[in-house]
Amino acid sequence: MDCVANIEKLAITKLIEATCLFDNEHYDWAYYTAGYTIELLLKAKVCSVLGIEDFFDEKNGILKKLKFPQTFKNHDLEQLLILSGIYKEFGKDCSEDINLRTKWSSICSWNEGSRYLMGKAQLEVQDFLTSISEIAAWIQKHS
Questions:
Q1: 104/107 Cα distance (integer angstroms)
Q2: Among residues 22, 55, 105, 133, which one has the fewest Cβ atoms lying within 10 Å of its Cβ?
């Protein structure tokens, strides 16, 4: 199993699904679904950096050997960015590009609990999707 490629494919699928939800005026679900794009891309980077062959196999994979596998199996984008191996480079680019820093800040408001949110405005979600797309492109470019 090509773990990194599969997770990256899943990440892009989440962005496509979020766009479809947005286009059909399901703004809350578009917001929620889109956030997984960045989470999954960062998890793919973690797998690449650490040589994890199957991120989702908790019973037989390398994560079973860890004392704290939840370190990697979380939804915290900041923590995943640190573990991904691109934290320093991303920080440097954010310090030089206020647009990138602003988009990252917007994305970091997302978490898995977003599924309980209601009332997201169209423009807010549209901006969020744009931020997700641009940060996703940055991550993929630096993979």
A1: 5
A2: 105
Q: Do residues 31 and 120 touch, judged by C-beta distance below 8 A?
A: yes
Count of alpha carbons within 13 angstroms of residue 85, beta-carbon side: 13
Between CA 46 and CA 27 the distance in angstroms is 30
Q: Which of 31, 10, 2 is nearest to 19 (CA)?
A: 31
CA–CA gap between residue 63 and residue 52 (Å, rounded): 8
Domain boundaries, position 13: 3-141
N-term to C-term CA, the chain: 19
Q: For 94-125, how does the pLDDT look when each residue is reduced to its tens digit (9 = 90+)?
A: 999 999 999 999 999 887 777 777 889 999 99
Q: How many domains does one find in the chain?
A: 1
Domain with residue 90: its CATH number is 1.20.120
